[in-house]
């Protein structure tokens, strides 16, 4: 069964066809319009999706061989509502026109399940660290559709912290890859930034961001590269410590990374040093893409689930709800 997946929840217009043999096409258009504002402007994102959705979907279908898919999946939330509506409506219209099933997909579940597209893929149950621009959460993924939230951020998401630090340093947007690149040339031990430790297995990055700002305003701040390296080391320490604690608590020995921050070089190295079996998707599968939506939709369809054509978007949809 071939599924077309459409993703427009933030600033990527993405479409992909996934079949039994895996990803047949994967087309991502990243919107450049937000760079001058230092962050995503929701209204501009929605308009840019409207402009690109047609060519992106057509390219994904053509690269997959041009056949009509057997179903269409789309992100229904969480995300920027105006942006989500573009891909969601397009997907419904295509499903209606072709007379094939439509599947509404949770964006975070798409991220969470994306490591299953790789070879080797983690078997259930596994720990899943979903770290993106809008979310930071640690789950015990027991089976398809059953995800236990072990911890989440109590304030900023990890990606948001990267983006804010990049803005403080005037590096540009999106900040994560730019901080990552500059950090590679800096000393991670130069500045001792805090490693906040809220309750449960939760995360907190807003104090760390404030500490970076205070350091930059101090009399003798370290170089930008050292600040980036020290900040990145603090974030990765916080993430990895929670993964180790979750493994000890649950007894789960497999961990999978997902979400844009999973493209971070240091996190991708460190996750392999925890004594667990780590599954790290290729970078292009960490940031927003259509393949993760097509794949999640396909798994649900194979499990006998699809959505009504008159269902609505779910801007604050929780994973597993
Ligand atoms: O999953 P994603 O593409 O979109 C959301 O669902 O939010 O994640 C985007 C986030 C941004 O905050 C971006 O700065 C961050 O992922 N990111 C990174 C890296 N690449 C992307 N953060 C750290 N290091 C990277 N290499
Ligand atoms: Zn995402």
Class of secondary structure makeup: alpha/beta
Mean pLDDT across every amino acid position: 96
CATH architecture of the largest domain: 2-Layer Sandwich
| SSE sequence, one letter per element | EEEHEHEHEEEHHHHEHEHH
Poorly predicted regions are none
Q: How would you describe the shape?
A: globular
Measured on Cα atoms, how large is the radius of gyration? 19 Å
Distance between the termini: 26 Å
Per CATH, the superfamily of the largest domain is ATPase, nucleotide binding domain
Please tally the helical runs, counting DSSP H or I stretches of 4 or more residues. 10
For this structure, the CATH topology of the largest domain is Nucleotidyltransferase, domain 5
CATH class of the largest domain: Alpha Beta
Provide a short characterization of the protein structure.
40% of the residues lie in helices and 20% in strands. The chain has 321 residues and is of the alpha/beta class.
């Amino acid at each position: 069964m071939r599924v077309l997946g459409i993703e427009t929840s933030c600033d990527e217009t993405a479409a992909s066809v996934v079949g039994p043999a895996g990803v047949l096409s994967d087309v991502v258009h990243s919107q450049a319009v937000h760079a001058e504002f230092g962050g995503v402007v929701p209204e501009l994102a929605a308009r840019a999706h409207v402009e690109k959705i047609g060519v992106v979907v057509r390219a994904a279908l053509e690269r997959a061989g041009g056949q009509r898919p057997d179903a269409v999946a789309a992100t229904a939330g969480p995300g920027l509502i105006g942006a989500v509506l573009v891909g969601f409506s397009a997907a419904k219209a295509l499903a209606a026109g072709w007379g094939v099933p439509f599947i509404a997909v949770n964006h975070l579940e798409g991220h969470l399940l994306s490591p299953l597209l790789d070879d080797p893929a983690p078997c259930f149950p596994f720990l899943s660290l979903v770290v993106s621009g809008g979310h930071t959460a640690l789950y015990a993924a027991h089976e398809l559709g059953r995800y236990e939230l072990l911890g989440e951020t109590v304030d900023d998401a990890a990606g948001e912290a990267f983006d804010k630090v990049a803005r403080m340093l005037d590096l540009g947007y999106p900040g994560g890859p730019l901080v990552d690149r500059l950090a590679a040339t800096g000393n991670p031990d130069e500045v001792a930034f805090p490693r906040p430790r809220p309750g449960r297995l939760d995360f907190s990055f807003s104090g760390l961001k404030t500490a970076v700002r205070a350091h930059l305003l101090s009399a003798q701040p370290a170089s930008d590269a050292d600040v980036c390296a020290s900040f990145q080391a603090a974030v990765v320490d916080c993430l990895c410590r929670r993964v180790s604690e979750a493994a000890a608590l649950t007894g789960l020995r497999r961990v999978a990374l997902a979400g844009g921050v999973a493209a971070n070089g240091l996190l991708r190295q460190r996750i392999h040093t925890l004594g667990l079996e780590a599954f790290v998707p290729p970078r292009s599968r960490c940031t927003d893409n259509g393949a993760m939506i097509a794949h999640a939709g396909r798994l649900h369809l194979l499990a006998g689930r699809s959505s009504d054509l008159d269902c609505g978007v779910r801007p604050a949809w929780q994973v597993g709800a």
